[in-house]
Amino acid sequence: MSKYADFEGLRDRARELRLQGMTYDQIQVELGCSKSSISLWVRDLPKPERHTRRVTTDMTQAQAGRREAHERRLVEHEATRQAAATEIGTLSERELFLLGVALYWAEGAKAKPHPQIKFVNSDPNMIRTFLAWLRLMSVENERLRFTLQIHETADITAAEDYWQGIVGLGAAHFYKTAVKRHNPRTNRKNTGTGYRGCLTVSVLRGAELHRRIEGAWCGIVGGIDSITKTQCPI
Questions:
Q1: Average pLDDT of 135-139?
Q2: What is the largest CA-CA distance in the chain?
C-alpha cells in the first residue's frame, strides 16, 4: 500500500525525490509505484547529480576527519614525548655509567678471545651518548677512531663532514670510508637526504675497558637477581 492516498500526492512526492537526486529505483522503493509512472512524472526534470556530489562530499568529510584525527594524534604524541623528556632531567654520572654499559652490551662488539671496543650506529644521538660515556670512562680523544660505512649512491663527502661535526673531531681521527656497492634488487629504506650511513666508533687499546664493561654488565644483571631469580652467566 502506498504511503500517499492520491495520485497528485504521489506525483508531487516523486518529483521532490527526483530533485533530491534519487534514482528511479530509489523512488520506487520509497513510494511503491511503478517505474513507468515515475518516468512519466519526472521526465521533464534534469538527471540527478546530487548523489555523486553527496558521495564526493562524504568522502571529503571522511578525509578531513581522518586528517584531523591524525593531527590530533601527532599533538598527543609530541606532548607525551616532551613530558617524558622533562621527566628525565639531568643525568648523574652513575646513571650515565649504567646507561653506557647497557648501551654497549646491546650494540657493541663482543668478540672473543681478543675483545675490542667497537660501537656501530646510524643514530647520531646514540653516537653522542656513547662518546659521552667514553669520556666519563676517561678515554682520551687520541684513542678514538671512526669509520664511516655508507652506500655509494649517497653524498659521501657531505656524510663525512656531518659525522665529523657530530663527534667533534677532525679527519685525522677517521679511517678511510667503507663504501658499499649499491644492489638495485635490494629494497633499501635508508635512502634520501637524511641517509648518512653508519659510524663505527673504535677505541684503541680497549681490551681492559671491554673487561670492565663485561663485569659491570654482570653487576647490573646481578643487581636484579631479587626480581629475576637468575644468575649472571658470564
A1: 97
A2: 102
